[in-house]
Amino acid sequence: MVDEKDIPAREEITNLLHLAAKGDKSAADELMRTIGKELRKIASIHLRRERPNHTLQTTDVVNEAFIRLFGKEGREWNNRQHFLSAASQVMRHLLVDYARRRFFEVTTADEVVWEYVNPYFVPASRPPQTQTNSVFRVYRYTEEEVARRRRAIEARNGADGLASFGEN
Predict the structure, then answer these.
(1) How far apart are alpha carbons 116 and 133 in whole angstroms?
(2) Are 74 and 148 contained in the same domain?
(3) Is residue 145 a contact partner of residue 157, using CB atoms and an 8 Å limit?
(4) Domain-ending residue, one of 100, 131, 149
(5) How far, in Å, CA of 20 to CA of 83, rounded?
(6) pLDDT for 71-119, tens place per residue?
(7) Nearest-angstrom CA–CA distance, 130 and 124
(8) 58-70 and 25-48 are packed helices; what angle lies between their axes, rounded to 10 degrees?
(9) Are residues 96 and 144 in the same domain?
(10) Dist CA 54 CA 47 (whole Å)
(11) pLDDT digits over 31-82, tens only?
(12) Pick from 152, 122, 125, 151: which is nearest to 134 by CA?
């Protein structure tokens, strides 16, 4: 059971939300201390719906969501519930964007063989002209396929045209 004296007054949280939205860093810090536990609970709920060996942690999701919510001045929050609803939505978008930037191979026993995270991923929420995702498809080649492709490139371009195909 939650002790009533541990729950800050609604007006206090709303006031902190308004101040933080206007760029007040101390209000944002106080807000995080005040409702951080609720934000971690929301993030935890979202992460439970993800794969078991997810590389993002609850704190990562909370911190990134908080930065996105207060990264731009001018956002107004009506109250605590309005803010928590927006935070939940941002957390969900974070997890979806994170999943879209990953490529991996899984065995039949659901073990990840390899994983690549595209460092240049731009979320779909950004305007189309700023989306510069450079990896659209990943192929896994056997050593024989790499050797065959290397020979084909070498025959076409000479040994200097190989760059670093197939090398780590």
Answers:
(1) 14
(2) no
(3) no
(4) 100
(5) 12
(6) 766 678 888 899 999 999 999 988 887 777 766 667 777 776 766 666 5
(7) 9
(8) 130
(9) no
(10) 8
(11) 889 899 999 999 999 988 887 777 788 998 999 898 888 876 667 888 889 9
(12) 122
Instruction: Measure the CA–CA gap between 45 and 62, rounded to whole angstroms.
Output: 12
Quote the tokens at residue 147: 């050797």
Question: Which residue segment(s) compose the domain that 23 sits in?
Answer: 4-100
Residues 16, 90, single domain; the answer is yes
Q: Which residue has the tokens 């197939």?
A: 166
Tokens standing for residue 110:
């659901």
Q: Within 10 Å of residue 158's Cβ, how many Cβ atoms? A: 9
> Per the confidence metrics, is the pTM higher than 0.70?
no
- Distance, in Å, from the CA atom of 51 to the CA atom of 62, rounded to the nearest integer, reads 18
The number of residues in the chain equals 168
* 8 A C-beta contact, residue 103 and residue 138: yes
Q: pLDDT at position 155, please? A: 82
